[in-house]
TrEMBL record:
Official protein name in the record: TatD family hydrolase
Ligand binding (a divalent metal cation 2): H132, H157
NCBIfam families from the UniProt entry: YchF/TatD family DNA exonuclease
Domain of life per record: Bacteria
InterPro entries named among the record's database cross-references: DNase_TatD-rel_CS, Metal_Hydrolase, TatD-like, TatD/YcfH-like
PANTHER family with a match to the protein in the record: D-AMINOACYL-TRNA DEACYLASE
A molecular function (GO) term: hydrolase activity, acting on ester bonds
Record-listed a divalent metal cation 1 binding positions: H10, H12, E96, D207
């Protein structure tokens, strides 16, 4: 499926799952119409590989941050490292950051502290933030409000919350991003939320190699499949796929300061 103007706003092309065919995966994305990608570096291992990709390809940009699952391992010097990288011309956001109450790897108080520190850093360096939220809707919204995240805004990555949560995030200057799950037949809530999100605040993504859209569910995801997310969004919004692709690309450029 080839659609012009696609922007995969969240991908992990540096994942080991692409070690055997990364070049081909990137070529397939370009052939499918993906003009821009933001690759996410989220810990000590993936930040360097993300930066390497961003430096190698002019159409790949980087977000760097500390994932909530990894927050127990974050040291003060890591925050300084992220701040230093934010001056790099290819770094467009701090992320993915947030809270994850599903995987019991980092205590909640540690996750909260690391999340707050990174929001404060983002405000200092004036970068948007990319939010990871798993089973933590109330605390995410509360901390974003308390830390005045509206000042910088950003992306609610692969949004899985209610419309009420989405509305609070929209009020704080965030874009709402949807991935593969919105293509699933039983994904009633994400589809209802997507339908209500204003067109100028809508983003699409893959989160590849995870959350693969229908009809490839169960297999490895890749950036070219963002076209299927665009197709689902078009059906829900009553727009053409080309309209969705162009609008979400413009939104992504605006969000990440690429205009």
């Amino acid at each position: 499926m080839t659609i012009p103007f696609l922007f995969d706003t969240h991908t992990h092309l540096d994942s080991y799952k692409f070690d055997s065919d990364r070049e081909e995966v990137i070529e397939r994305a370009r052939a499918a119409g993906v003009q821009l990608m933001v690759n996410i570096g989220f810990d000590r291992e993936t930040i360097p590989t993300t930066m390497a990709l961003a430096e190698k390809y002019d159409f790949i940009y980087a977000a760097v941050g500390w994932h909530p699952v990894e927050s127990i391992h974050m040291k003060p010097e890591d925050l300084g490292w992220i701040e230093e990288l934010c001056s790099h011309k290819k770094v467009v956001a701090i992320g993915e950051i947030g809270l994850d109450y599903h995987w019991d790897t980092s205590p909640k108080d540690v996750q909260h502290r690391v999340f707050r520190e990174q929001i404060q850093l983002a405000r200092k360096v004036k970068k948007p933030i990319v939010i990871h939220n798993r089973d933590a809707h109330e605390d995410i919204v509360r901390i974003l409000k308390e830390e005045n995240a509206a000042e910088i805004g950003g992306v609610m990555h692969c949004f899985s919350g209610s419309w009420e949560t989405a509305k609070q995030c929209l009020d704080m200057n965030f874009y709402i991003s949807f991935g593969g799950p919105v293509t699933y037949k039983n994904a009633r809530v994400p589809k209802e939320v997507l339908e209500r999100v204003p067109m100028d605040r809508l983003l699409i993504e893959t989160d590849s190699p995870y959350l693969t859209p229908h009809p490839f569910r169960g297999k490895r995801n890749e950036s070219s499949y963002v076209a299927y997310v665009a197709e689902a969004a078009a059906e829900i919004k009553g727009k053409t796929v080309e309209e969705i692709a162009q609008i979400t690309t413009e939104n992504g450029k605006k969000c990440f300061g690429l205009q």
